[in-house]
Amino acid sequence: MNLLEAEEGKEYIVKEILTDDEELNAFLFSLGCYSGEPITVISHLKGGCVVSIKDGRYNMDTDLAKAISI
């Protein structure tokens, strides 16, 4: 399951990041989004979703949300 399929307001654990892009992996890691970390979908938007990771809220586009397996 990926973030686009997640229920709003429910906490999930990141299983893996499904991308071959090292820059994207490094960016997500800098946000605190990596395997084993909790993530919560705050709301779904037309172009992606808003998520809460640690103490921050981030807007993720559809491609990025699909790459995060929960």
What integer value in Å does the Rg equal? 11 Å
- What is the structural class? alpha+beta
CATH class wording: Mainly Beta
The description of the largest β-sheet is:
4 strands, antiparallel
Shape descriptor: globular
Quickly describe the structure.
The protein has helices at 22-31, 62-67, and strands at residues 11-13, 16-17, 38-45, 48-53, 56-61, 68-69. It is built from 2 helices and 6 strands.
Question: What is the topological layout?
Answer:
Blueprint: E1 11-13, E2 16-17, H1 22-31, E3 38-45, E4 48-53, E5 56-61, H2 62-67, E6 68-69
Antiparallel strand pairs: 1-3, 2-6, 3-4, 4-5
Properties at a glance:
70 residues, alpha+beta, SH3 type barrels, four-stranded antiparallel beta sheet
Question: What do you see in this structure?
Answer:
Residues 1-70 form the Ferrous iron transporter FeoA-like domain. This is Ferrous iron transporter FeoA-like domain-containing protein. GO terms for molecular function: transition metal ion binding. The protein has 70 residues and is of the alpha+beta class. The protein has one domain (3-69): SH3 type barrels (Roll). The protein is built from two helices and six strands. The chain has helices at 22-31, 62-67; strands at residues 11-13, 16-17, 38-45, 48-53, 56-61, 68-69. The strands form two sheets. A four-stranded antiparallel β-sheet has the order 1-3-4-5. It has a two-stranded antiparallel sheet with strand order 2-6. A hairpin with a 2-residue loop joins strand 4 (48-53) and strand 5 (56-61). The longest helix has 10 residues, at 22-31. It starts with 10 loop residues before the first strand and ends with a strand.
